[in-house]
């Protein structure tokens, strides 16, 4: 089953969402892919935990919003997909005789969380939760694009090219859910604010090759 899933992942056509780089205001520093290539064990470990956290976040959203039928229906297969991604990355580590290291503190995500609405109405908090997940998927997609273009290993370039496509689909799903439950105008206005803030975060983060974000 895992081999069949990997085959489908590696043979999917790229969508326009991926090619358009998702509206992010600031691209990743070109040095990052070179550094990541020199820290493959670290970057694969961090990637594995990113996929694991993505699956758990979707489960949490379903548990807290069982009355939202579209959300439950759309996120249920994403849980399976993200966990499948975790297993694929773990398989890649083992194939290279590398070990899954310890989970690190995610400075990027922690900085995003400081911008998330804490008070106010429930809809605003829910909107920010969906948008922060969309943003993490968008930046992951952009980082996977860098790896798919910048790594020396041809197999790993193709490996990350297909992960890039998957993350783009997840990004668009979270945007769609935000517009469905909170209104298109409100969601897009807040999304623009998130994009501006995220660019500031990226500007001030140290360029490190041992992490996806």
Main traits of this protein?
213 residues, mainly alpha, Ferritin, 74% helix
Explain what you see:
With 213 residues, this protein is mainly alpha-helical. The protein has one domain: Ferritin (Up-down Bundle). Helices cover 74% and strands 0% of the residues. The chain starts with a helix and ends in a 9-residue tail after the last helix.
Brief synopsis:
The protein is an all-alpha fold.
What fraction of residues sit in β-strands?
Answer: under 5%
Mind summarizing the main beta sheet? none
Q: At CATH's second level, what is the architecture?
A: Up-down Bundle
Query: Into which percent range does the helicity of residues fall?
Result: over 70%
Q: Can you identify the CATH class? A: Mainly Alpha
In CATH terms, what is the fold-level topology? Ferritin
Could you name the ranges where pLDDT drops below 50 across 5 or more consecutive residues?
1-21
The total of beta strands comes to 0
Computed Rg = 17 Å
Number of domains: 1
Gross geometry: globular
Spell out the helices and strands N to C.
HHHHHHHHH
Q: Report the end-to-end length measured between terminal Cα atoms.
A: 29 Å
The number of helices is 9
Give the structural class. Answer: mainly alpha
Global mean pLDDT: 88
């Amino acid at each position: 089953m895992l081999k069949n899933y990997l085959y489908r992942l590696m043979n999917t056509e790229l969508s326009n969402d991926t090619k358009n780089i998702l509206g992010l205001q600031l691209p990743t520093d070109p040095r990052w892919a070179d550094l990541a290539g020199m820290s493959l064990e670290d970057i694969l470990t961090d990637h594995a935990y990113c996929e694991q956290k993505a699956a758990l976040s979707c489960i949490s959203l379903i548990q807290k919003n069982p009355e939202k039928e579209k959300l439950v229906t759309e996120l249920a297969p994403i849980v399976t997909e993200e966990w499948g991604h975790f297993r694929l990355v773990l398989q890649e580590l083992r194939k290279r005789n590398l070990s899954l290291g310890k989970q690190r503190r995610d400075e990027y995500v922690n900085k995003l969380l400081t911008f998330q609405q804490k008070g106010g109405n429930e809809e605003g908090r829910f909107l920010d939760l969906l948008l922060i997940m969309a943003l993490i998927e968008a930046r992951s997609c952009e980082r996977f694009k860098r790896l798919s273009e910048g790594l020396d290993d041809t197999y790993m370039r193709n490996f990350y090219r297909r992960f890039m496509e998957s993350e783009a689909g997840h990004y668009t799903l979270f945007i769609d859910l935000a517009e469905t439950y909170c209104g298109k105008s409100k969601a897009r206005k807040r999304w623009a604010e998130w994009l501006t803030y995220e660019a500031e975060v990226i500007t001030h983060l140290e360029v490190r090759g041992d992490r996806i974000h």
